[in-house]
Design goal:
Number of strands: 46
Number of domains: 2
Family: Belongs to the TonB-dependent receptor family.
CATH topology of the largest domain: Maltoporin, Chain A
Radius of gyration: 27 Å
Helix content: under 10%
Structural class: mainly beta
CATH architecture of the largest domain: Beta Barrel
Organism: Acidithiobacillus ferrianus
Transmembrane segments: 21-43
Strand content: over 45%
CATH superfamily of the largest domain: TonB-dependent receptor, beta-barrel domain
Pfam family, one: Plug
Membrane topology: Multi-pass membrane protein
Number of helices: 6
Length: 817
């Protein structure tokens, strides 16, 4: 029996070798399988028997890998010798999370992550990692990019905010790499971090789970999961299918939502179990209402903290569909070479509906009821106001006033992404080389935007369409090479790498409110970046590892930042924004104790900025901004006894604008503003911390933990009377008004009851209480003016999103076999 520790994963292997094969073959086989084991580090336990005939040898030469256990140690967090900071969300943490959480909210259990959302269940939140915003982060799903190649994040502003590509019930682990990760983990286009999600995989034994949960705010979840186990007479084929339905009234009034999630996952081993083909299909759907702008605090004080206008007065609804398909292959060539590849497809469609009661569309009503009523942004439209003949709808003639005729808006959009991700692992005596790449293309569909006086509107191009048609396309060509060199008796690890990425972007704009087909144009641009990385880790002692790294990251400009130049044919496009990230840290990995402490410095250059070019009279984007993030992070876990453990993390971050420039400085980047050198980044807390205790014995699991989110800068709007046009009505960081910090306590408990009667193996009852102490707090706060006809009117007032109150949920699931 051999026992080998690789990174932070312990791999136990018992190899029974036929007399004609040397012990080295078994060891080399396990080493060659290591990429699969680390890629599927959350997959549980598998057993494989390998029978293989050898050329020139009897037919039954056997290499029997009786057991390859992939056991993720709950003590060890991350990969032991990785030279960058790293955090892990384990299968147990995902399993015991509540239905109010999603794939983003559970990231708050790790250092330097701040997140909030305005509803229960899956949805796109406001998320920062070390102050870097979600659109600037890379996200991967089983190694493929799940973020929009065209825009970053899930998509453009106020697109695809309800539902997600992958939901909590469909994943079995998350890796978080803040800063710049090694190239094979870095994902596509990031200037501050990568979040890597790993989907659930089928296991060897058959089972069926039926589950249901009932929670606060009329929240209920029900569904089924079927794991085929190894299907007889298929040479190892196994399949997992999961279907769940979630519905909620929302903790904010008048924000109901409904979600459907489906997962299909299959694994087919071949080559006597040394290689495998994988297939994953995910279909998710979200239909829900959200608030397009925070509510005035005066109204929350008067009507209750979770007040929201009735849907008959104001509504913003999204109906979104997400389809993801991944086909992968991992082929064992020999003890020195493993090759693999994945082909993928991601399809997204979004239908956006917004309505505001006309009685609120006036200059005297003091608050912004809905940000998306067309009149707020455009003012009167129609042929009488200079619009061309392609917009023949007359709001005043049909509805009696321009305000009433421009109270509703429908936007249809879609995109599809196809791609190919190859990977080669080469194992040499003292180093492991990884070569990989990404070839992918995202293309938008022919969407449209329509105005009317009600949501029951005709959608007619040439009548009430403010924009229709048009296709944006981005093709990505990226490749990397990475080496991990082990020296000094495997105590010194040097990990150099480099990524080369080229991006070709086109955007055909055939028609919009201000231009007709004869004025159609195509925008195009090509960008490329070379991104180096170097990491070093050294075993100071058997349990103490020191590490440091440098990496460069780049994010390419969203396609909406491309504009037509003054010549009528030139594309004006900003180049990539970049980061130079430095890290140094030390970690202790013992039998009962894990500790990690690191410091980082991230200098961000050429940040996208919106400004007016007074020579051309055009609004342009350019690479002007400079930002800096620096801080310290700590995390740890201690096993008190086999049943009891304590865990915690703390981080300090100082995120600062290094120069003055026009910026999207609100958290969701939906509002133009201006920042000054030395300003802190809004909505980025200096301090974040977690502390908890976990108990597990027999069938019982219990955990209670507290999370602290420190105070954070807010924003306010300068008055419209500012003489500098860059500053008039500009949103700026508010250094004199900080959002108060808050501390939340969450509880989870479950008990598995053995049954073993007929086909019912067990019943599991569960309890989750989020915000146990029912703290009332704001997650976002700022001061602004009301927008009316794209102008600021009235007096400034405070607006806020409330945080989720106490959420109680009970669940029951049964396992059948």
């Amino acid at each position: 029996m051999e026992k080998q520790i690789m990174s932070n994963y312990r791999i136990k292997a018992h190899a029974y070798i036929a007399t004609s094969l040397h012990r080295y073959i078994a060891t080399a086989t396990i080493l060659a399988l290591y990429p699969f084991l680390t890629t599927n580090a959350f997959a549980g336990t598998e057993s494989t028997t390998v029978s293989k005939s050898s050329v020139g040898a009897p037919a039954q030469k056997v290499v029997k890998l009786k057991e390859i256990k992939k056991k993720y140690q709950k003590l060890l967090v991350g990969e032991r010798n990785i030279a960058s900071a790293m955090s892990v969300i384990t299968p147990e943490q995902i399993k015991h999370s509540s239905s109010s959480e999603n794939i983003y909210s559970i990231l708050k259990k790790t250092p330097s992550v701040n997140e909030y959302q305005q509803n229960i269940g899956p949805g796109t939140p406001v998320l920062t990692v070390r102050g870097v915003r979600m659109t600037q982060l890379a996200q991967t799903l089983d190694g493929i990019p799940m973020t929009s190649l065209l825009s970053g994040g899930e998509g453009a502003y106020l697109n695809n905010n309800v539902g997600t590509i992958v939901s909590t019930g469909q994943i079995n682990g998350i890796h978080i790499y803040p800063g710049v990760a090694p190239p094979d983990r870095g994902g596509f286009a990031t200037v501050g971090g990568t979040v890597s999600y790993i989907t659930k995989q089928p296991t060897d034994k058959f089972y069926t789970d039926l589950f249901s949960k009932i929670g606060s705010f009329s929240t209920d979840v029900y569904g089924a999961q079927v794991n085929s186990g190894i299907i007889p007479h298929t040479d190892g084929l196994k399949v997992l299918m999961r279907l769940s339905q979630t519905q909620t009234a929302g903790y904010i009034q008048n924000t109901p939502a409904r979600y459907t999630d489906f997962l299909f996952s299959a694994v087919k081993p071949y080559d006597y179990g040394l290689s495998k083909i994988t297939g994953t299909v995910i279909y998710n759907r979200g239909n829900g209402y959200l608030i397009s702008a925070p509510t005035a605090t005066a109204q929350l004080n008067q009507n209750g903290l979770f007040y929201n206008y009735p849907l008959s007065d104001a509504s913003t609804q999204q109906v979104n569909n997400y389809v993801t398909a991944i086909l992968g292959d991992s082929t064992y060539i020999n003890s020195h070479l493993v090759i693999g590849a994945k082909a993928f497809y991601i399809g997204k469609s979004s239908n956006f509906y917004s309505y505001t009661n006309p009685k609120y569309i006036n200059a005297t009503y003091p608050y912004q009821v809905n940000f998306n009523a067309p009149y707020f942004a455009y003012g009167p439209i129609g042929s009488n106001y200079g619009n061309n003949n392609n917009f023949s709808y007359d709001p005043k003639a049909v509805f009696g006033s321009y305000q009433a005729g421009e109270s509703a808006e429908i936007i249809n959009s879609s995109s599809r992404t196809i791609g190919f991700v190859p990977k080669v692992n080469i194992f040499l005596p003292h180093n492991a080389i990884t070569i990989g790449g990404l070839i992918a293309q995202e293309r938008t569909g022919n969407g449209g935007e329509y105005f009317y006086g009600s949501l029951n509107m005709p959608k007619i191009n040439g009548y009430n369409a403010s924009a229709y048609g048009g296709t944006a396309t981005r093709t990505v060509y990226s490749g990397y090479v990475q080496d991990k060199i082990s020296l000094l008796d495997n105590t010194l690890h040097v990990e150099p790498g480099v990524t080369l990425t080229g991006v070709n972007t086109t955007n055909y704009v055939p028609w919009n409110l201000y231009g007709s087909p004869p004025n159609a144009y195509t925008l195009g641009n090509y960008d490329k970046e070379i991104l180096p990385y170097i990491g070093i880790s050294y075993d100071l002692a058997p349990k103490i590892i020191a590490y440091g790294s440098y990496g460069k990251g780049a994010r390419f400009a969203p396609v909406n930042d491309y504009i037509l130049g003054p010549s009528g044919s030139t594309t004006l496009a900003p180049g990539p924004e970049t980061v130079n990230a430095y890290e140094a840290g030390i970690r202790y990995v013992g039998k009962h104790l894990y500790l990690n402490f690191d410091g980082y410095l991230q200098n961000m250059h050429g940040m996208f900025s919106f400004y007016i070019n007074y020579l051309s009279g055009l609004a342009e984007y350019a690479n002007i901004g400079e930002e800096q993030m620096k801080g310290l992070e700590f995390s740890g876990k201690y096993l008190l006894t086999p049943e009891w453990s304590v865990f915690g993390s703390a981080s300090y971050n100082k995120a600062t604008y290094m120069n003055s420039f026009s910026a999207n400085d609100t958290p969701f980047e939906g509002q133009y503003g201006y920042v000054f050198a030395g300003n802190p980044l809004p909505a980025v807390p200096n301090w974040l911390a977690n502390l908890g205790v976990n108990y597990h014995r027999g069938g019982f699991h219990g955990e209670i933990y507290g999370s602290y989110t420190g105070s954070q800068p807010t924003t306010y709007d300068l008055p419209p009377t500012e003489t500098n046009p860059l500053l008039a009505d500009a949103t700026v960081p508010n250094t004199s008004n900080y959002l108060a910090g808050y501390f939340l306590v969450n509880l989870s408990a479950s008990y598995k009851i053995p049954i073993h009667k007929d086909h019912l193996q067990s019943l599991t009852v569960s309890l989750n209480v989020d915000n146990l102490l029912d703290r009332h707090y704001y997650v976002h706060y700022y001061q602004s003016y009301k927008e009316y006809g794209f102008n600021a009117v009235g007096n400034p007032y405070n607006q806020a999103y409330p945080g989720e109150p106490r959420f109680i949920e009970v669940g029951l699931s049964g396992r059948f076999s």
